[in-house]
Amino acid sequence: MIFFVAIMLALFAGILAVILLDKRFARGAAALFASVALAIIIIMFFYYLTGRMVGYSESIPYISTFGISLQFYANEFSVPLSLLAGIVGLAAIIGGNPLQERAKASNSLILLFELAAIGLFASGNLFLFFIFWDVGIIAVFFMISCLGEGNNLNSAKVYLFYSLLASALLLFGILMIYFYTPIRSFNISTIEAGAQTIPLGVQEVIFVSLLIAFMIKMPVFPFHSWMQGAYSDASTQGSMLIGGVLSKFGAYGILLIFLMLPIARTYAPYILIIAIVSAFYAAFNGIRKDDLKRMAAFTSMAESAIILTGVTALGAFGLDGAMYGMVAFGLGISLMFLSIGSVEFMYGSKHLSTLRGIVKGAASTAYSFLFGVFAATGVPITAAFIADLLIFTGADKSFGVLGVVPLFSIIIVGAYLYYAINKSFFDTENSIEIVRYETGHWNPSYALLIFSILALGIVPALILGFR
Amino acid sequence: MVFELLVLVPTLLASLFCIAVKDGRVRLTGYVSVFASVITLAIAVYLLVYAPVSTTNISWFTVAGHTFNISLTSAHINMMLLALVAFISPLIMIYSLGFFEETHEHRRFYAEMNLFAASMLFFAMAANFVSLIIAWEGLGITSYLLIGFWYRKRDAAVAARESISIIIIGDVAMLAALVILLNAYGTTSFSYISAQQAGYQIYLAFALVMLAIFTKSAQFPFSGWLPKAMEGPTPVSAFLHSSTMVKAGVFLAIIFMPLLFRLGLLPVVFVIGAITAVIGVLNAISGTHIKRILAYSTLEDLGLMLMAVGLNSVMAAVLLFVTQTFYKAILFLDAGSITRANNEEYNIFKLRESGGNKLIFWTAVIGVLSIAGIFPLSGFLGKIGLEVSATNIYTYILLVLIELGTSFYIFRWIFVPMRNSRKGEILEKLKGTPLSMVIPQTILAFAVVAATSLYFFLPQYLGISNINFGYSAPIVETILVVVGASIAYYIYRKGHKIPTNKTLFAVVHSIDWINALYLVVSKLALLTSRAVEFIDYLVYLIFALCGFVAIVVGRRFRNIVSGNLNLYTAWIVIGMAILIIAMVFVL
Question: Is pLDDT of B488 > 80?
Fold first, then answer.
C-alpha cells in the first residue's frame, strides 16, 4: 500500500486539474480531489486505528548518493496531523472563497499547501521535511500577497522575511545534524538513534537554531511579529490554513527536536518558561484588538503556547496531548477564521467596533463562531478539552505546578472572546446591514469542522487508539 | 451498573429532537420536553428508592496505561440531588409551556433547557473529577446560553457574558485541580481523594476546587453575576436558582466537607459564606426588582449553606440545600406569573394585583412563610439547624441578624406590590394565567409542606446524625420572623407613606462595590494589555530596525555591482594588492 504517495498524487492531480480546467470548475475539481485525498487519509486512519500501520513506511529512492529517498512514515503523529490537514484543506476549499475570486490560484494554492503539509508531517527524513516546509511557506506567501487584502503586501513581506530566517536556520540545523551524526543521514529514525554521539556544544548550536526556526513558525514570543499581519491580511482560506495547519509545522518541528536531540531535555524548563510567557503575552495582546482576525490570531498564539507546554513536558501524556492539541486547536481555530471570513464577506467588515447583531443576519455563522470559542476555551466534548487535559497532566508530571500555569491564560482568552461575541454577534439593538447576502457555501464547511471537533472530543480513542 | 446513565437519555434525546424538529412543529418541542422530564423523574425515583449504593466506571479513553474513567455513583446523597433535579425539571418545563407565548423560540429554549437539565443530572451522579468537570463546564455553557436567551435585550447579553467570564475562572481552576490530583494520586475518584491526608498538593488542588465552588455558587467576590442573571427568562431563573447550577458548588462543598475540615479550609468557607449572606440580605432589603430581590435572597441562601458547611454541620447544610429548592422555585414561578400579567414590569412598587389570582397569591405566601422560617413549613428546618450548630455567640448573633433581615425583606417583597390599587386589565390577565403555570406552583406548595418530614427520614437515608433542638430555638425563630414581618408591615402597609432615607439605602446597597471591583479588575487587565501591546510594538521595531539596517547597508554597497567596468577593474587591482601584501607579510 502506498497511502501517502497516493494522497499526494491525488492532490497533485487536483492542482493540475484546477490549473488546466476552466475557471468555473476550479472549486469543484479542487473539492473533488481534496475529498479523494481525505478519503484516502480516512482509510489510512482506519488501518492505523486497528493497529495495522505499526512500522509502516513508504520509500522511493531519490538521490542515492546522499542516501536520500522519498520516505514517508505513518506513526502516531503523521496520521492524525494528515487528517487535520485534510479536513482543514477541504473545509477551506468548500467554504472559504464564496465568490471564487481568482478561483484557480486560490484552489490550487490550497491543494499545494495541503500536499506540503501532509508531506511534511509524514516525511521520514529531514531533507523532505525541509522541502515541504518551504513549499508550504511559499504557498501561504501567495495566499497573503496575491489573494489577501488590506495591507497584505507589507504583511507578506514581513512574513517572508521571518520565514526565510526560519528556513535558513532550519537548513543550517539540518546540515549540522547531517555532518555530525556518525552515519551521515537525513533519516529521522537514524538520527534519533545516533544523536547521542554529537558533541554537546554542537548539539546546543543545532538545538538553538532549530528551536528559533520552529518558534518563528509556531509562533512563540518573541518571534511572532509576522503573525498579526499574516493572519489578518491573508485571504480567509489563508488564515484558516495558517492558523490551522501552518502553525502546527512549528509545533511538530519542536516535537521532532525533542525526539531527536538528547540535549533538548535539559533545556525543557526554559522552554516551559517561554511557553508561559508566550501564553499570557498572547492572551493580554488579544484583549484590546479591534480586528476579529487579529483576536483569533492571538488566540491561536496562546494555543500554540499550550501545545508547546505539552511538547516540552514530553512523556506519554505530554506528547499525546501535544499531538491532540495540534489537531484540536487546528480544527477550532480554522472554524473561527472561517466564520470571521464569512462575516467579513457578508458585512464587509471584521472590526468589533462596527459589527453588530450578526446573529440576526447570519445565524449559522454566529453559532459556528460561538462553537469555535467553545472549542478554543476547551469546553468538554470538544476536542480541545482532551488536549488541555492531557497536556497539563503531562506538564504537571514533568514540571510540577509550574506546568499548569499556562492553563490560566484561557481565562483571559475566554473573557475577550466572549466579549467579542457579545458585542458583535449577539448585540442586536443596532445591528448593521448585510452588504452581500449569504451564499451558504460555508455551511458544509462548518458542519465538517464542528463534526470533527465533536467526534474527537467525544471519542478521543479515535486518535489515541483503542488500546 | 450503567443503569444510572439511563437517566440522562430522555433529556438528551429531547434536546436532539428540539434541534432537529422542523419550524412548523415547534409547539411539539415543549410537550416532548415535558414527557422526557417526566420519564426522567420516574427513573430518578426508581434509582432513589431501589438503587443499591455502587460506583460505575465507564472507561473513556486510555493514555499511557492510564484510563480516564467516567465514574458515576448511586450514593444516597447523590441520588437525593438527582431526585431533586428530576422533580423540579418537569415542573419548570410545564411552567414554560404557558410562560412562552411566542412559539418561534421554543426550539432553542427547550434544546438548551434539556441540555442544562442533563448536565445537572450528570453532575448529581459524578463520582470523579473527570465526570465532574464535564458536567461542571456543561452547566456553565448551558447557563450562559440560557441567561442570554433573550439576547435581543442588551442587558441579557451583557449578563450572559459577565456570568461566563466569571464561570470560566472556576472551570479552569477545576481543570487545574483535576490535573494536580490526577498526578498526585493516580486517580480522581472522590472517595479515594476524600480519604487522603493533608499534603501540599491536595491543599493546592482544593484551594482551586474552592475557587471553582465560589464562582459557581456565586460567592463573594464572584457574586456579581447571579443577580444580573435575572435577565434570563423566569423559568430559567427558577431552575438555575432552585436546583441547578448554583447548587452545584454547594453540593460539591458538602461532599468534600470532611476533607475540607481536615485541610483546615472550612473557616475560609464559613467567612466567604457569611460575607455573601450579608451582601445578599442587605441588597434584598433595598432592592426594587421583583426577581432581583429573590436573586439576592438566593445569594443569602447559598451563603447560609456554605456557613453550615463551614460550621461542619452536614445536616444543617443538607436541610438548607433541600428545602431551599422548593421555596425558591415557588417564589420565582410566582414572580414570573405576576410580572407576565403586569406586562414585564419588574419594579415591586409599580406592580399591581399581586393578590389577583388567589392560587398564585397563596402559594407565594407559603413560599414566603417557608423562606422566613415559620415553624411547620420546611424552610424552618434549615434555619434552625444552622442556628443550633452555631459554635460561638458572634456566629449566633450574625445568624439572628440575617434571620431578621430575611424575614423583613421577604415580607416587604410580598407587602409592597399589595399597596397598589386594582386595575381591570391586569387583573383579567392574572386571573387568566394558563393552568400550566399555576399547577407547578401548587405542586411545589405541597412539596414545601411535605418536605418538613425530611427531618425525620433524611438522616437515616443519608446516614448522618440528626440535629436536635429543644423548644427554645423554634420560639426564638418564630419571634424573629414575627418581628421582621411586623416591621415590614409597619413600613409598607397600605396607605402608609414610605420613608425615603437615602443614606440608609446607600449603606445597604452593596452590589455596586462588587461591580466596582470588577471594573478595577477589567481596567487592570486593559492596562496590562496596553503595556503588552507596547512591548509587542517594541519587538516589532527590533525586527523593523534589522530590516532598516539591511536596507541602509545595501544602499551603501549597491554601487559595487554597478556594472561599471572601470570600477570592477579597480576593485580587482585593490583586491590583488591586499592579497599580495597579505601573502608577503603573513607567510
Answer: yes
Greatest CA separation for chain B: 118
Count of domains in chain B? 2
Do B569 and B433 fall into the same domain?
A: no
Give B493→chain A minimum CA distance, Å.
40
Q: Identify all chain B residues contacting A461, using CB atoms and an 8 Å cutoff.
A: 61-62
Task: For residue range A309-322, list pLDDT tens digits in order.
Answer: 999 988 888 888 89
Asked if A285 is an interface residue toward chain B (Cβ–Cβ < 8 A), one would say yes
Residue B403 and residue B491 in one domain: yes
- The one-letter amino acid code at B391 reads T
Q: Which of B482, B509, B536 is the last residue of a domain?
A: B509
- Considering only CA atoms, which of B280, B328, B330 is closest in space to residue B304? B280
Chain A hits for B141, Cβ within 8 Å: 374, 379
Domain with B365 in it: 267-509
| Window B:510-549, CB contacts with A under 8 Å | 525-526, 528-530, 532-533, 535-536, 539-540, 543, 547
- Residues from chain A that touch B133, judged by Cβ atoms under 8 A, are 380
Q: Per the domain annotation, does B159 fall within a domain?
A: no
Does B492 share its domain with B547?
Answer: no
Query: If DSSP codes are grouped into helix, strand and coil, which group holds residue B496?
Result: coil
Question: What pLDDT score was predicted for residue A467?
Answer: 45
Q: Is the dihedral of CA B520, B521, B522, B523 positive or negative?
A: positive
Residues A338 and B444: their CA atoms lie apart, in Å, by 48
Is the ipTM above a cut-off of 0.90?
A: yes
Instruction: Return the C-alpha cell found at B224.
Output: 456579581
Domain shared by B334 and B482, yes or no: yes
Put simply, the chain B residues between 452 and 471 with a CB less than 8 A from any chain A CB are none
B311 and B331 belong to one structural domain:
yes
Q: Among the three residues B509, B533, B554, which one is the final residue of a domain in this structure?
A: B509
pLDDT at residue number A194: 78
Q: In which residue are the cell numbers 435581543 written?
A: B152
pLDDT digits (tens, 9 = 90+) for A60-75: 877 777 777 788 888 8
Cell of A2: 502506498
- On whether any CB of chain A is under 8 Å from the CB of B80, the answer is no
Nearest to A411 among B140, B172, B539 (CB): B172
Whether A222 contacts chain B with CB within 8 A: yes
